[in-house]
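Narrative summary of target 7.
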Amino acid sequence: MKLLAATVLLLISGTPSSALAWGREGHRIVAEIAEQYLEPETARQVRELLALEHATTLAEVSTWADEIRDQRPETAPWHYVNIPIHLPAGMPLAYDAARDCPGGECVVAKIDQFAAVLREKATPPRQRLEALKFLVDLVADIHQPLHCADDGDRNGSDIHVIFLGQYTTLYALWDSGMLAAMGISDVHAYGLNIGQALAPALLAKWRSGSAADWATESYRLARLIYGGSYEARALQIFYQDDLVPALNLQLEKAGLRLATVLNDALK
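Modeled conformation, tokenized:
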């Protein structure tokens, strides 16, 4: 991890990033973790819904909501919430629906909305399936810290970095670059391993809270990423020996909480 820290240099640029939230690998890892914590009845109903489109696992549909954004551009704001990094003195460092989610067009509101759709058994099956597919993606997204904060740089997409000799952005580095650098050859096995390694004491703690709480948690993590100068962002906090544990922590929380949302909706 010290090698990773030493090879990150920050530059300023306005070139946009094309990274999707968590990238394909991150989304699949979250789905693999969630599968391990589904209750039997939840797993049965999930299989029935997925079978409508000949899928068998949550991982298979984990990036569907990203893949349809070109065809359904109105869904783009559903993947993030822009909580301002710089707030007036005395204001809570937390998600505020009125300020941060106008019209309910953000990841927090959409998680609650799609959970309600999935919960309603009278809803047509294909509509419930779509809600399920959105939830698999969006619960992962809300745990990507840069999807829950903004400093006027499009969630870090306008801050360019050189990482292991490759040009990328601060957003893409957290989103997929660090996972790619880990050289994960088997996403299924990786998800199983880190999911099974969760300490029992953490399970109850992480299952608690709401989408609004999770957004606040990710926002406060993002404030650490944004702390200090651009150079400090590269060499402080995440780009040191705790990089992989910090990344895995967010994936683990996302997987467990996705399972919790589904268990609550399909009980």
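The chain has one domain: 2-265.
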